[in-house]
TrEMBL record:
Top-level taxon of the source organism: Bacteria
SMART domains: MoCF_biosynth
PANTHER family documented for this protein: MOLYBDOPTERIN BIOSYNTHESIS PROTEIN, MOLYBDOPTERIN MOLYBDENUMTRANSFERASE
Cofactor(s) needed for function: Mg(2+)
Cellular component per GO, a single term: cytosol
Keyword Metal-binding: yes
Domain (MoaB/Mog): residue spans on this chain: 188-324
Entries under InterPro entries matching the protein: MoaB/Mog-like_dom_sf, MoaB/Mog_dom, MoeA-like
Function: Catalyzes the insertion of molybdate into adenylated molybdopterin with the concomitant release of AMP.
Protein name, as recorded: Molybdopterin molybdenumtransferase
Enzyme Commission number, as recorded: 2.10.1.1
């Protein structure tokens, strides 16, 4: 047996030669290239690969009767094991993990929902040298089967002491979470505007809302029309609250014109308004509030006219979180200004785009 010493990123590690037939479970310390004339010249096995029983005949066919492997070191951890530590610190409910591949593990959604990251703790972990965790954007709506995150360490081997530091930095709670969409939600819509109420013009806003709700498997449970009288709109909202709606959407009358009175009606119906106005374009006149009814929290939104015309607005950002039961704060909505300018692309790919990222 031949032993040599290798320097890797400041860590002294032992490397040894051994017979290939005895190498099951050992870790390769070099790429093994396969050359087939006219077909391929590429690495058949990568450095860091854990040798399996079925690999032995392949290695022998490549002329490798002896190979170099990393000698076990109790003070160090292989990249696959280290990736599993990161996986443990990240994985939460509604996520499944892939098997380690070349030192990387990915997390995949097991349901539709809203993906979230504990940003402060997450950043603290990623600040540590040799640690890499990459995720989807904060509050991104995801579908079952989508990749949520990938993680790995930089070196082939990393000190166990370093991974303990990672654990301490991350804390006891998972760094990631996936909020599943709630089922069987009751959604009420109040359409305001005397011109619609009297039938002078056709209601073209409600079909837009129906189409957006359909993407989440929801329909409009109750629909009310109201003229521009504040008391009438208030009464319609209160009726929907009494009927047990989980989400109430109000359209029309959301600008600052004197006859736009929907925000006042929402307030008068007892809704605690988080914000009237948002740092998002399109969506500056958006209203968000919450109301407690019989032990449940009802989300109430006032939708500006842009929701009817633009493919992606603040409503598309808030609706998934409302369906998941996640309360949005005024501070968050004001922070939306960074990334809150829609580029109005000819082909809209939201949420796979920079809008509100």
């Amino acid at each position: 047996m031949i032993r040599t010493m290798c320097i890797k990123i400041g860590v002294l590690s032992a490397m040894k030669e051994m017979r290939t037939v005895d190498a099951v479970g050992q870790v390769l310390c070099q790429d093994i290239t396969q050359i087939v004339r006219g077909v391929t010249k590429n690495a058949r096995f990568r450095k860091g690969h854990v040798i399996q029983e079925e690999d032995i005949p392949v290695l022998l066919s490549l002329g490798k009767d002896h190979i170099y492997i990393w000698e076990e070191n109790a003070q160090e951890m292989h990249e696959n094991e280290a990736a599993d530590v990161l996986r443990e610190l990240c994985q939460n409910d509604h996520m499944t993990a892939t098997e380690p591949k070349e030192g990387k593990i990915e997390l995949v959604a097991t349901c539709d929902g809203v993906f979230q990251v504990d940003e402060d703790r997450f950043d603290a972990v990623n600040e540590l040298e040799d640690i890499t965790i990459a995720t989807l954007a904060q509050n991104m709506p995801v579908k079952k089967g989508m990749k949520l995150a990938g993680m790995r360490v930089t070196p082939l081997f990393i000190a166990r002491e370093k991974m303990e530091e990672v654990r301490r930095t991350a804390g006891s709670e998972p760094l990631l979470r996936l909020l599943p969409y709630r089922k069987d939600l009751k959604v009420g819509v109040v359409t305001t505007g005397t011109e619609v109420f009297l039938g002078r013009i056709k209601d073209t806003f409600t079909p837009v809302i129906e189409a957006k709700l359909k993407k989440f498997g929801l329909t409009i449970t109750e629909h009310r029309l109201s003229d521009d009288v504040t008391e009438h709109t208030k009464a319609a909202i209160e009726e929907l609250l009494d009927l047990g709606m989980d989400i109430i959407l109000c359209t029309g009358g959301m600008s600052v014109d004197p006859d736009d009175r929907t925000p006042a009606a929402i307030r008068d119906a007892g809704v605690d308004i988080v914000t009237y106005g948002a740092s998002v374009l399109p969506g500056a006149m958006f209203l968000l509030g919450y109301c407690e009814r019989e032990g449940r929290e009802v989300t109430v939104m006032g939708l500006p006219g842009c929701v009817m015309f633009d493919k992606a607005t603040i409503f598309d950002m808030i609706l998934p979180r409302a369906i998941a039961g996640d309360r949005v704060t005024r501070k968050e909505i004001r922070h939306f200004g960074i990334g809150g300018l829609c580029m109005r692309c000819e082909v809209c790919r939201y949420p796979i785009c920079p809008f509100q990222k």
